[in-house]
Amino acid sequence: MGSGNDSILDMYLYETNTLLEQLDGILLASEQADTFSQDSVNEIFRIMHTVKGSSAMMEFNSLMTIAHRIEDLFFIIREKTIDVVPESLRPELFDMIFQAVDFFRGEIEKVENGDPLSTSIDSIVDKINSLIDKIQSGANGGAGGEQAAAKEDAAAPEPEAGPSPEPVNKEYPFGILVFFDEGSGMENLRAFMLLNGLRDYCQDFISFPENVENDSSTSDIIADQGFLVWFKNKDERDSSIEAVKTAGSVRSYQPVDAKQEQPKAEPAAPAPAPAPQAAAAAPAPQTSAEPAPQAKAPAAQHQKESLISVNLSKLDQLMAVVSEIVITESMVTSSPDLKGLRLDNFTKSARDLRKLTDDLQDVSMSLRMVPVSSTFQKMNRIVRDMSKKLNRPARLVLVGEDTEVDKTIVDGISDPIMHIVRNSMDHGLEEHQSERIAAGKDPVGEIVLSARHTGSEVIIEIKDDGRGADSQAILNKAIRQGLAYPDQEYSQKEILNFMMMPGFSTNTEVTEYSGRGVGLDVVKKNVAEVGGTVTLTSEFGKGMTTTLKIPLTMAIMDGMEVSVGDTLFTIPINSIISSLKVTEADIIYDPARGEMTKQRDNYYPVLRAKDLFQIEGGRDNIEEGILIWVESGEQSYCLFVDELLGEQQIVVKPLPAYINSFNVKNYGISGCSILGDGSISLILDMANVYPGNTQGAY
Description:
- The chain has 698 residues and is α+β, with helices and mostly antiparallel strands.
- The chain has a six-stranded mixed β-sheet. It has a five-stranded mixed β-sheet with strand order 6-8-9-11-10. It has a five-stranded mixed β-sheet with strand order 20-12-13-22-21.
- The longest helix is centred in the N-terminal third of the chain and has 32 residues, at 2-33.
C-alpha cells in the first residue's frame, strides 16, 4: 500500500512541477506582451484545473483552494477575453499569479521534504478574490443583471435559434445527458464551459437548464439531474460527443433521444455511474461503448501513450547493465584463448555483436539525454524578479537551448547556472541606467545564456555586459582574507580564480540575493561533482563571462588506447585530430615552451607522457614512438606515447574518492576503464593534461 501511495505522490510531484514550469514560461511571455493571448488563457485555465484536481485527490487543500480561485478568475477572462481586465489592473494580475506560482513551488518543496503544508493562505486568496471583484465590477460596470443575462441568452445558442423555454423542443430531438464529477462545485459554470466547447462542433443546439452562466441556482439542478444538450439531427449530436469527451470534470455521459422519454425521466438515467470512486479511477466507461464518433479518439489516445515518464534510477540500472555488456563483449572478442586461431564464423558473429552493442549503447544513452531548455527557461523568471526588485532593467537572451545533456548533469548544473545568473544581475550589471548610458551601453542590461556541444563536452556560457570584475578590488580583498600574498604578482586569470575560493564574496552588504558568503566556490564544487570545470573571464567596464565545461555524459565513450611503458591510457576519440610519425629533424627546441613540432603552418608543443606521469620504462627516442595530435577547448598540442593499441569503446568508471582527494583531475586523469583482458586503463582529460591549461581550468 505504502509503495503505491509513494508512486502516486511521485507522479503528482512530477506532473505539478512540469505544469508550474509551463505556467512560468506562459506568464513571462505574456508579461512581456502585456496581455494574455486566448491560447495562454486557455492553457493557464487548464493547468489550474489540473493542479486543483490532483491536489484535491492528494488532499492538499491549500493548493487546491488557490488553484480553484485562479481557475475561477481565468474562467471569467476566458469567456469575456482579456479585454475584461483593464490595463491598469494587469501588473497586479501578473504579480498575483507569479506570487501564486511561488506559493505552489514552496508548498511542493514542503511535500517533497515531508514538511506540513501552510494553512495561512488568506492573503493570497484575498488578493485573487479582490482581483475577481475588480474585474467583474469593471466588466459589468453600469450594465444591469437582466441586461447581461439577456445578452448571454442571445449568445448561448448562437445565430439561428433562441433557447426554448421548455426542456424539450420537438425540433431538437437528439440529446446528450452529462453528469459532472460529484462535489466538483460550480456545475453551472462547468455546463457553460461545455456549451462553449460544443460550438467548435455545432452551432445550433439548446440546453436544459438554460442560462447556466448567470443563474447559479442551476448548479443544484445539474448536480442532481444532469445537464442536457439537445440537437436538431443525430449527426450533429454524435460529432458533438467529441467535445463532451474532452471537457473537464465530466463523470459520465450518454446519448438520449426525445422520442423515447420525457425530460423528467431523462435525468434518472445515470445508472452507468453509480460509484463516483470507480468513475474517477476509470473515467466515463460509456466512452468505450460509444457507437459513432471515434474517428479522432484513437489518434488522441495514441499521442498520450507516446510519452512515458521513467524513474531515473531505472535508467541508471539500464546504463549499468549496458556498460557491463560492453565490457563483457570486449572480453569475449579479445580473449587470449582465441589468439592465433582463424575463426571466420566467430569473427563475423563478433562483428554483428559489436554493432548491436553499439546500437544498444546509443539507445540507452539517448534515453537519458534531455535538452537544457528547461533549466535555461527557469532563468527568465530570476531575471524578471530581480530586475523588478533591484529596479535594474535587464533582458535574458537564450542561445542553443536545444542542446542535449545527460539528465543527471542537467540536474547538477541547474543550481550553479541560477547562482551565476543572480551574480550577473546583482554584481555584474550597473545599478543605475545613467551609468550604462554614460558608458555608451544600451540602458537595458543583457545577460546571454548559451550552450553548445564540442564533441565530448558541453560548453555553457553566462555572459553579461555589466561592469566587469575590478581586478585590483578582488586582489585587495583576497590579500585581506589571507588568500593572496601582497608582494606577489598575479595574472588576471589567477585573480579571478580567487572569486571561486570558499567564503569569498565581493558584496559588502547582505541582500536578498547575495552576500551571505555563499559564493562561486559552491558553483565550482557543484560543477566539479558532475566532472566539469568553471572558468571566469572579464574585461573591466565591458562585462564578465563564466564558462562551464561539462562532460556530455558520464557513461560510455569511444577511446583510443595507447601505451607508455607498461601503463595504458585512453584518449577520447573526440579530442584526437591525427596521429603522427616524426623524426628528430621535425622537433624544434624553444627555450620558453620546450619541444615543438610544426603541423599545417603552426607550431604545437610536444608533451612526453612518460615524463608527465613519471613512468618508468617507455620510449625516449622520438622516432620509436608516435605523436597524438589532440585538441580540447582552446588547447592544441602533441602527446608523445610508445604506441597506439587501437580504438575501443570503453565504459567510464569514476576514480575512487580516496584517489580523487589527491586532485588527480588537475593532472588530466578523469577516470578509468576496464579493458577486455581485465587490465585497467586511465582515461585522460586532454584539457587538463597540458600544464599551461591547468590553472585556467581550475
